[in-house]
Amino acid sequence: MPSLRTGPASLGSPPVTPGLHEQPTSRRYNADATILLVGFVGAGKKTLGLIASIALRRKLIDYDAFFHSQVNSSPQNFIATYGFARYREVETELSQELLTKHQKGCVIVGLGITASASQKQLLKAFARDHPVIYVRRDEATLRQFIQANPEKFERVLGIGNAFFESCSNFDFFNITQDPSQQNEDQLYAPLKLKEIERVFVTFLHRIFGNPQKQLFSADAFSTTYTYALMLSLSQLDGAHLDLEVLDSGADAIHLTLFPEDFNQGLAARLSWHMTTLRNQTRVPIILDARADQRTDYSVFVEIALRVAPEALTCHLVGATEYAQSIRAAKGHTKLIAVHTQSEPIGLTLSSPDIHIVRRRVKELGFDAIRLTGKLGSPDNAISCAIFRQNLMDSLGIPVIAYNESTSGRASMFLNSTLSPVSIPSNYEGPWLPLRETQEALQAFSLVLKKSFAIVGQNVSQSLSPAMHQAAYTSCGLPHEYKAKSIDGFENIPQMLASASPNNLFRGIAISLPFKTQILSCLEDINPDARDINAVNTVVLEHESQPNGDRRFFWRGYNTDYIGVKDCIHGHLSPANAIRDGSTALIIGAGGMAHAAAYACYQLGVRRMFIYNRTPSNARKLADYYNQWAMSKGDHALHLDVIESIKDPWPSDSRLPTIVVSCIPGQDVDSQLPVEFRISDQWLGSRTGGVFVEVAYGPLKTSLMEQILPLSKTGWIVVDGLKVLVKQGIAQYELFTNRPAPVHVMRRAVEEEATKSGYFHT
Description:
The protein is α/β, with parallel strands linked by helices. It has 25 helices and 25 strands.
């Protein structure tokens, strides 16, 4: 199991200089503000810079290349010729020119290696209006690039670390494993980079206040009974922790730092753990500090804001100037006011009283408030819930309120926003795991059973029921998910008409061949599904009416495209990163092919070819998207049809690096394998590509048989089970309004596939 035991050794670095004692920068930037990456040689700045430039569509500038373009020499040769003192003079001049001329639309890497005082001042000035990110790396990797004896290495590390911390405003720990350290069983080396790519790009979007939507469930700060997984920094340090449980269905991670955590290595340690958490989960992270007289709270705040957490706690009672400084420097991080009292919440609010709470929350601009009491009992759980609702109505912000004791668990159950839950295998304190907490809500009739089904002509062998049912069980939900094979489409409208607020039926997954026909039965269609012109997920939803009643209606979604898109993006090697001229081949012309074309479009592909055994259907698909793109004002998208597998690949287009097969693996009627291969010439990309097979079953499809041997040329094969899980995650969240327990769903599919003898890569 993955663990954190390979984390950074103590770097011997001093704490980050408390920026809150200085005039804080706001950490809010113009949307096109240039990004600057600094750090030691070997930290991976250039790789992350390339990732950032592609993802954000910015110009990448490497300082060494810029230096060479200006003086016709590399920094190393210049130093050898003219000496270090002269180099520092030129370095300062060129650095100032570089930063002055490229304030917008760029990603700059390579500055600050000499750690000069003049460069420090330049970088600190640049950091007032631009994100300057210190890229950290583990000590073992840095030793490979810094050739020095142990004593000198430690000295270089200490000086450099202090320099980079002082002139940057963000930390990112690059946990990419060196390919030379990987064994054959580990992830294909180029794809290892995809993990850090997702985390780093998400980190950048957070810095700029454009967080990417990673969940289809309710907002963590809503009042829909959301949960925070309680963790401590020491728990993450332990080698025994199974990281998979972190993505187990909670709505947020609440990471607490205790006084003993405030040591010299805290900045690097926290940065490491934040990258690891973001790699393992998709939920917001809340940082909380239990400081005491031994610790400087401002140090924690400065270190915390450097990792751009989604939320940060701040004591409600304390120095007003601290809260104001945090508010000024927090960027796009939410600020949660916290207050703990010795008496139960709801019976009394000892100090400060309720009037002071309202005034301070409004004055200091908190985004939410958390109040915890002690010595609660089941008897006062209702009064605690009433108190929370009244306070929320008064403040107009999310209120978290409960009694933090074993006897006060009932108040936690009734708290509807970010109630604390523990890791399933580790009951710490008064908190229960999510499963037991959800089961307790059932006792209060606050979680009701729902029924879902997958319907289609032949769904008896579908693995979806096992995948969803395992997730429900893991999260303590009483729901059920069944497979229903139907002969004709007329059965689906009958199912939809039978639903009502009083019965259990709440949604259906639409399988072949009804994904387009279902559109006419729906009152509302999600924009993506409307653009795709196909629906595979239908959910019973409601909206409030002016008279106070609720109107129930069926809304259609498409999660197929999400499954295909995520599988393409997660398996497309850096050599095949999507750029102008990238080409995709879609095989098939049904609802899944519609979804695959849309997935490619969302990823940035603007040139696609469709092949289908019935060319007229391929033309309909191509015409649909060509007309759709014109209606959107996108004149770059163009889909063409390849009439025959004997046709040569069109000479005016690059060979495809993305191939998606959307045809069934078995004939619906005879259940015999569908025999189909494409021209080998179409698979001649010199850098290979990614092949996604959406079908799954007991046999390799003929296309998979054809492409698997091409793995040596760079082709990566993604089977239909991976697509099933990816789209199933989104479908689960739409059905339940809860984050999906990803590792549970993935494991359930793998186990069921093995039992059924299904082939998977």
